[in-house]
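Moderator note: this is an archived Q&A kept for reference. The question asked for a predicted structure of one protein chain; the sequence and the answer are reproduced below.
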Amino acid sequence: MVAVTPHDATRLRYAWRVCAVTSLGLVLIGIAGSTLNVALPAVVRHFQAGPLESGWILLAFLLVNTASLVFFGRVADLLGRREVYLAGFALFTLASLLAGLSPSVGFLIAMRVLQAVGAAMILANGTVIITDAFPPERLSQGMGVYIGTMSVAQLAGPTVGGLIAETAGWQWIFWVNVPAGLLALGVGAAILRRMPRRPRQPVDALGNVLVFAALSALLLALSEAGSRGPGSPVVIVGVAVFVVAVPLIVVAERRSANPVLDLRLFGGRLLACANLASFCNALARSALILVVALYFQAARGVGAFEAGLSVLPVPVGIGLASPIVGMLGRRVSPYALSIGGALLSAAGLGTLMVTAGAGTPYWVIGIGLFVAGCGSGTFLTGNTTQVMTALPAGSLGVVNGLRVMVMNVGIVISVGLSLTVLTASVGPELRAQVYAGTLSTLSPVAVGQLMDGFQRAYAVLFAVALAGAVLAALARPQSAPASRAST
């Protein structure tokens, strides 16, 4: 039995305090996203937004957040992780305050963009701060708690969002973030220690511009393809920009002395397959709450609060699985946990796929959602630990930025793909009624058509989850993880 020295005990106490701070940040961002998923119909009705504007209320955040994650991972490596992390809290809190004051849907989308920038500064650094704080042998425990807090946000978010939308008004969906953001900023400033900065090096301006342009063009094309079709000029231009930008990125990053995206770090099979598996898991799981909430509002005609309650099995599953898996991490390899979690997620989505129907008992839906949630909690803990322990300390920021960026790309595609499959089944003239949650009051025939869309959406997500399990299996470690420099 290894003796625990006073230094080890002190480091572990600090690590758990860091875990509490970073978990609070994840809860803040998670609540901000999950409340809006359920309350979207209330916002749409308030602004009388069309289908395109309705989609952009969600997608604007995801697009900007995804495209800027790698940039802020690199900036934090150079300028200080603590400083960038806390600045993200300040910006996110301010944007939330202004979002609640939005006079128009355009202004609201602009504030969502500012929220996205602040969230990118937080997300690109939270996992790295935890990785730096915990001893390697305890990292899976800290990561399990950190990932598990996402379930707290998802647990509270839909219920709180539905309740707020029906009582206090949609503005408070954003304003509830303000006191939480101020608390996180104050606690973070008091607890987080300054981390050593890397030597000052020139910022890869060209690389940043090219990466941002490529990601923005791709995600814009994907989102527009769902609402306007693949022949839309926006889609064609977006794909063309992406195709041109990718080889330019490869050339520019190979020539740069300080690349924002060091391609050498992503050439190994473990990292490539683990990130692709993470992409598939994000794509398969992330639209579940949105799709199920729309199902209960558009197909069954329930209110936002009841719809929020209906999706609780997903975050409950994540919340139960993540800390348990974190404790098992000292006995079970992250590799095995990743595979098991991916298969469990596929099982939950398969249950929803084969039982989809307007009259399906809720307990059947609940089981599918719970199993999918348990799978996601297991996969996220194992996958994140596997990736973060396989890297040298100097590359943690940019690689974690890429890891979260890959997941966000999956989320964007998931939202756009799921909504496209759903609304395609009822025709363009009724899509606005789906987003507003009023379809069930207009046409029982259209509700039946919509159920076909739900079944197809679950089928697509199930297939993607299975692909993620295969990729997780291919990410087998070939050697012992690289040791990280302690600080």
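Archived answer notes: The radius of gyration is 21 Å.
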